[in-house]
């Protein structure tokens, strides 16, 4: 590696990891209250908390790595531009394409890293996190049930067990008040009850043995009784740990092969079909934004200005804001069917690829491609725009 390459990489690697740490920490703050509630009030162990944090990292890094790279390029090269070091390099005969080589190489590495997070680690970690939360809720459900105590841990259900096996395998003489149907509340009694969980479908149910259910409708003056040998009562864990327990994976938890398989089962014209297609394309568009941010950031960092890093950070916020506002807008249009799913996913990257190519070409030629209308602007405003995009008069 040449001395120039090492020097340029040192300028962007430091800001990259600093911004990456700050952004990731900011995202974690949004989960701190829930994590502290799990640790203090729910009795979740510290090792399980660390696992949950590890499972959150891939989904965070998919967003923070591109932003950190853009900020690092603008801050690092902006500092070199502010100190006139880039001018010296160009005066020495080093073209912009040679200066950009190590930066773009680092952007390619960041793109591959983000792609591995989006394609492999993020779907697996999202599903593993939901499975862990379900397992925590399932364990707490069994531990939280006490004999001779009315238990309201489950949503719209009150459970009373006269006796619980010392090993916790089953309950005896169970009384249940089921209020999920507000117009027809149900009272269930059973001789025995077992907690049965299905890790694959993430469901928890109470298997009742030798009992009966009772329903009364005062409005109609009717009463219904049903005797059963076995009866499975599904338990809702959404009130515990704020975690749902669906019977299938969400689109964000699917890998590429799973998304393609699910897409084949659904009509592409439906909302669910469009969502699956957009999610599939996002696994490639979000990582590609790393390279595109670097391509846009290199020419934007050029020019004569004094505040290199401060200007670079401000520009990074503006560029990221434009990209994600555009992404959210076209993605919503794609999900509603107003745009094709491919366009809804790839349009922001296409816009930034074209803009980055034009800016890079203009900066390498020491000029900025402007329409004729630009020439009619006041001289002071033209000078500001030219300085912003790195134009220098020869």
Write up what this structure looks like:
The protein has 394 residues and is an alpha+beta fold. It has two domains: 3-137 and 252-371, no CATH class; 156-235. Helix content is 59%, strand content 15%. The protein contains nine helices and five strands, in the order ααααβββββααααα. Strands 1-2-3-4-5 form a five-stranded antiparallel sheet. The longest helix has 49 residues, at 96-144. It starts with a helix and ends in a 6-residue tail after the last helix.
Q: How much helix, percentage-wise, in residues?
A: 55-70%
Structural class: alpha+beta
Average the pLDDT over all residues and give the rounded result: 80
The major β-sheet equals:
5 strands, antiparallel
Order of helices and strands: HHHHEEEEEHHHHH
Strand order, main sheet: write it out. 1-2-3-4-5
Total of domains = 2
Give the tally of β-strands.
5
The end-to-end distance, rounded to whole angstroms, is 32 Å
Low-confidence stretches: 239-247, 369-375
Multimerization state:
single chain
Gross morphology: elongated
- What is the radius of gyration? 29 Å
Beta-strand share of residues: 5-15%
* Helix run count: 9
What is the topological layout?
Elements: H1 3-40, H2 46-82, H3 85-91, H4 96-144, E1 157-164, E2 171-178, E3 186-198, E4 203-217, E5 222-235, H5 256-265, H6 271-300, H7 308-336, H8 341-364, H9 379-388
Antiparallel strand pairs: 1-2, 2-3, 3-4, 4-5
Give a quick rundown of the structure.
The chain has helices at 3-40, 46-82, 85-91, 96-144, 256-265, 271-300, 308-336, 341-364, 379-388, and strands at residues 157-164, 171-178, 186-198, 203-217, 222-235.
